[in-house]
Every structure is written in C-alpha cells, then in structure tokens.
Amino acid sequence: MARATARHILVATEAKCNELKAAIEAGADFAQVAKDNSTCPSSRQGGDLGSFGRGQMVKEFDAVVFSAPVGVVQGPVKTQFGYHLLEVTSRRD
Q: Contacts from 55-64 at CB under 8 Å and sequence distance 24+?
C-alpha cells in the first residue's frame, strides 16, 4: 500500500497561499512559515502531517501527495478547508 509523509500550510485565500509560496521559494523556512501562518492544528509541528495512506486525505490533497515530486513545494491546492501549500517529505509505493 502506498504511504507518504507530508507537511502543509493551510490559509484562507489563494493570494496568501501564493505570497507564502514565494517566501519559501526565496529561502524562508517551511516549518516556520507554517507555525506563523497556517490555520491547521498541524502548524504547531511545522505543518507536519505524519504518515498516511492513499485515500486518507481529501481527494485534491491526495492527488498531489501521491503524484508530486518529493521535496518540492506544491500549491496552491484548493480544498473545502481552504488553500494549501504541500510538500511531500517521503513516499513509497
């Protein structure tokens, strides 16, 4: 069964998501940006979601996590919760 570990940042708007992505791409620390900005409880762990299998996350999130390259920030990804930046930290099929 496919498993992945990932971290994310959840915000209310696409504009904020793009702003944070630009900051990370310019060298800001993902975990610190998550702690300072994410509305998800995972922000306390720098956005770390731990390990999970295919189908355990919402569809839009799942699709990115199980297809995106490891270690590359993806997003904005829109779900019913808001806009996410995602980074797959490991994956095994």
A: 61/8, 61/86, 64/88
Neighbours of 72 (CB within 10 A): 9
Cβ–Cβ under 8 Å, residues 82 and 90: no
pTM greater than 0.85: yes
Q: Are 18 and 61 in contact (CB under 8 A)?
A: no
Three-state DSSP at 62 gives helix
DSSP-derived 3-state class of residue 28: coil
What number is the average pLDDT over the span 3-10? 98
Domains defined for the chain, CATH in brackets: 3-92 (3.10.50.40)
